[in-house]
Amino acid sequence: MKLSTLTELNAERAARRPAIVVTDISSGEQRLVKAADFAADPLRDALAKQLRMGKSGSVEVDGKKLFLNVHAPTAKLVIVGAVHISQALAPLARSLGYDVTVVDPRTAFASVERFPDVPLIAEWPELALPPLNVDHYTAFVAVTHDPKIDDPALLHAFARDCFYIGALGSKKTHARRADRLKAQGASDSDIAKIHAPIGLAIGAVSPSEIAVSIMAEITATLRLPKASAS
């Protein structure tokens, strides 16, 4: 790889922006495609597919064999609420390669004993979330059932364009939540981003089953084409 290409690639990675190095297998020629250029690139469909999969791979275009080396940011999961569901969700997400952080100002819940080996921040969302650099490659889950904690957290997630935003609660609970959030400046498009009731409808009952349904919905949102992810 040319030094100039490597320098550009490292800059994209440092900024947590995806990029793909396209290599002509026969000639060895390489070019870097940045996220901002995906839509206009002749390989846009192949680039989008490999990026969704999060895997590098070979494609053949116009008789040329190309290798697409995918460099995607490590996905984050921010869980607001150190509850029973979170105890099951955090290790499940870590096993899938997510960087997981649990936020809950209630120190009785946010304890090392309940969440071994998981970063915990026992602060209110207004203080805890800004240093986490939440971004588009972050899945955001609010599960406290306490508007004083969940609502400001969700507003933060809207502002940071998280790829997945989910919140615990029934349809009635979510309707009340939507009214509160709109009163605080959230738009209809913001509210539409929330997956609520949270998780895929698999008949989940126990905290562990609910955690599986949440992680399945996050995975579908990340990996499937947008039209198929809902």
Automatic annotation (TrEMBL):
Residue intervals of the XdhC Rossmann domain: 77-218
Superkingdom of the source species: Bacteria
InterPro entries: MoCofactor_Util/Proc, XdhC_Rossmann_dom
Protein name: Xanthine dehydrogenase accessory factor
